[in-house]
Amino acid sequence: MNIELKKVKWADGNAPSTPQTLRLSFRRQDAPDVSDSYTLVTDSLFVLANGTIINPPLIKGLENAMPYVLRLQNNDIIGGQVDILYTTPSELAFAQVTARFTPNARIDYVNEGINLLSGMMPSFGKAFFTLENDFIDRFATYSISPGAAPAFKKYQGYLGLYVNAASGSLTTSISQPNLIGYNGAAYYSMGVNFYISTADLGTSGVWPLLSCVDASGNGVMVYVDNATKKVVWQQKNPTARETLTSTTLIVPDSWNNVLIGSAPAPIGNNVLYHLILNGSNNNTGSIGTSSNFSTPNANEMLTVGGNPYPSGFSGKGTFRNLYVTAALSSTGDNSGYTTLLPPTGYLQQVSNPANIITIPHENMISVSSTKISFTIPQSVAAGNYNFYVKYNRNTSTTPVVNISVDAVTKQTSPFDFNFALSDDTLNMTDAFQVAHYAINENLDGGPDGGVVPKNVYFRDGMLVLEAHGDLYDGLVQGVDKDRMPKKHTEPGDPLIGEYWKTRVGAAVATRSYCGYGRFIVEAKLPKQFGVSPFFRLYNRATAFLQDPYYDQVIASGLHQRSDGANGYYTIVKNEFSMELPANNSVWVFNSLSEMVSVNYVYPYAGMKVIVNAGDNNDGTWQLNTPAAPNQLSSWTKFSDEKQLVNQPRRDQVKLKNSKGPLGNGAGFNWLPNPVEEEYLEMRASAGKDIWDDAFHEFRMDWYANRVEYYIDGVLIQTNPFVVPDIAGRFSFGLSFPSSQFEDSSWLLDPQLLTAGVAAWHHQTMTVRRVAFTPFTDAVAGGTNRLIGETKPYDGMYKFPFIYG
Fold this sequence. Notes:
It is a single chain. Helix content is 4%, strand content 42%. The protein contains five helices and 58 strands. 40% of the residues are buried.
């Protein structure tokens, strides 16, 4: 443990009349009072007559909860020395919260020794896509493109891509030579799962399911004859066209699967083909080799749900699985393609083993050979469960994992932890620990170490949150985005291979979810910039397209996203926060004309921006008339100053309302795309220096239509935009908003240091009161949504003796 000795309290009658230069050393109290027991800290400690220490040194290597004698020596001191008895704070031991979930939480089964895909995909092939979970070829060779604006439909718990053959198709990277070979005589087979609704059934014409043809129709196509409702396989070259037709019909308003392909060996001059519809060997025919297409075009690709040349085709449907291989097996099923079954998750109630909940297929978010992920259905009741997965066509079962599912409930009673007024400090701190977690996380993964539980402790009966700056040289390690000990790993980093120890903060969060209400924290901020104190309520989740929660998220106004590998999803970042320090402006414009030409989505009175045009207009401008932000008369020049993001002020605060992470947070967007604005970051002035080594009250009142922000009882801003509505955990602490410099992840970008430079060893924020008063629905003006987070307990650590 490291401590700073900041002030000496002289005994009555012993205070010197002038500043002193002292020798400081220490020993454990139980060590003998001899010179060999003392460790020298400094022989040049400069102390003012009132006891204030100038540039206090760091006393390193002290043990936890241990009494020490600190000795100050100087001939000018009466008696020659002063001994100070000091007991170090009790560091807290933490236990990670594991195997706890809530409805809507993500639960993973990971096992490197089990192939969870064994029943979900054929044993061999060229390409296999499960379009409901992602757009990845399970054989890792080909790709598929859903188009610029894919449409999705969900039927009977299965999700697929919806295609209108008259306007487009899904396109794969499987070319004609890939499919049928360069001589046009290779064996091939193709299979697809598709859903056709009665409303989309045509009465005439052709609906292509799979097409690999040129503009003249030469190649291979599998289609539905809309008049007969039968599936037809067609092989065509410039001189011949041959077909094979199913003997049964497709089933409307249901999922169908079709497999068409060649047998592994020719029969005389012909090739034997199978057409399998819905698991039945529907037709076997002998096709003449005269229709083989011998001049395949590498530019013509296999398409799904339509034809690359859509003229004359009609039909609409939804597609889920796509399979391509070289030849059809002699059984006509190609290693079980038509009997594919995805893994199935189960929750068996421990108290009632007969109660086994099958996790619906639509809650299966992702699957690979070693990992499968589900979201716990929102209908699952709280309790203890055995979680397991059946795979390999549901004939094999994974080992059981015991988990706890907690209900998502709101804090309905107020709490007020006032450490300063407590007559029983021990019981007060114990009660706080029962109601809170310490946090271990690094959300942005930048050149910092996130927040860790070791930097949370109690001292003199109050809660202390410690932050380690750029000069820290102690033992506490930071964490990475996976919450593992972070290391310097980038080539070129002079500390490569060492653990990350600088720019590491601390934070705590409520165990319960809090809804609309009043949140108060009384705290003494650090004295120096370089770290960001924050007070925040949050609820975070990721909803993938097939998840039932996805539709709720889209309906709330958030937007679809995709990273190309994990399919389509939305991110819920439902929060509001007060963060310090901040500059006073939200954006830098290059000219006045640019300032008044953007699309203002959330304009508000008092919004400040910078104009940096290189002329007399340069400075900070303020919006006075938010109803007309694109008129120059609505703005006035506030100041000639241009306070950039790396020039924070001691009186400025950043106030954030958020439902999601998309947008720039500044309240405007660039035309012509004005829609993706899911959060807003306001700036406000506290009207005074709040980094003054004094306690201040930070308060947020959350209503259904606004969040009101107060400092020391004074309303500094009301934010009525992007107001969150999901109950969440309330957290506060010290963090480092660190952006990396160019391509060097270990370096800070000095232009983006919103909290300033952390040119110090460590600082603390001392908290003397934490309080919450819930509002009734009538007072709040609405009712919170209660929805679980994707990973509600990740990074949560229990305080000592808390086992719930």
